[in-house]
Amino acid sequence: MHAGTEVGVKEPTAAFSTCFGQAFLPLHPSKYAALLRSKLEQNRNIKVWLVNTGWIAGPYGIGRRIKLNYTRSLIRAAIDGSLLESHFNKHNIFGLEYPTSCGEHVPAQILDARGLWNNDEAYDMQAKRLAKLFISNFEKFNNEMPPSVHAAGPKIETTVLVS
To answer: 77-86, 103-112, 135-144: which has the minimum mean pLDDT?
Structure first.
């Protein structure tokens, strides 16, 4: 997402950039994915964290940016290992596991993206929309990525009505 800090940007929009640094990464994304996989396989003790430093609690105009104090506390807990002591839930669309607590400096409700929204249906709709954008963007890499990478992507429930 463009955060809206750029001059003239009034509303965040979804944007995809290879490894969040496309202009500085000349190789195909599959090369970076293979390198990351190799490093993780060489050292099984490495922990990988994805930290939301942006928008929470609703769509643009309703939600807000996460407080910097919370982001800092989450990163400190990830680095010092204390975040691993939390219980984890799994996001039903993105398949990511997220902690349910992070010490005294981060309110537990901040960690539950869906729970922060006032409307579960609106959250689910927005999460599915974002998942579809990820899936669509990833299609350009279909031939270069192993099946395990595809399997790790977002899952969108589909309902087939039979009459």
So the answer is: 135-144
DSSP characters for 37-104?
Answer: HHHHHH-TT--------SEESSSTTT-EEPPHHHHHHHHHHHHHSGGGGS-EEE-TTT--EEES-BTT
Q: What six digits make up the tokens of 68?
A: 């910097």
For residue 8, the model assigns a pLDDT of 66
Please state whether 95 falls in left (phi above 0), alpha (psi between -120 and 50) or beta. left
Among residues 129, 127, 131, the alpha carbon closest in space to that of 116 is found at: 127
Q: What is the pLDDT of residues 5-64, one digit of tens each?
A: 556 666 767 777 666 677 777 887 778 888 888 999 999 999 999 988 888 999 888 999
Please state the length of the chain. 163
Q: Parallel, antiparallel, or unpaired: how do β-strands 97-99 and 55-56 relate? A: unpaired
Longest pairwise C-alpha distance within the chain:
56
What is the C-alpha separation between 31 and 127, in angstroms, rounded?
28
Judged on CB neighbours under 10 Å (0-12, 13-18, 19+), 43 is exposed
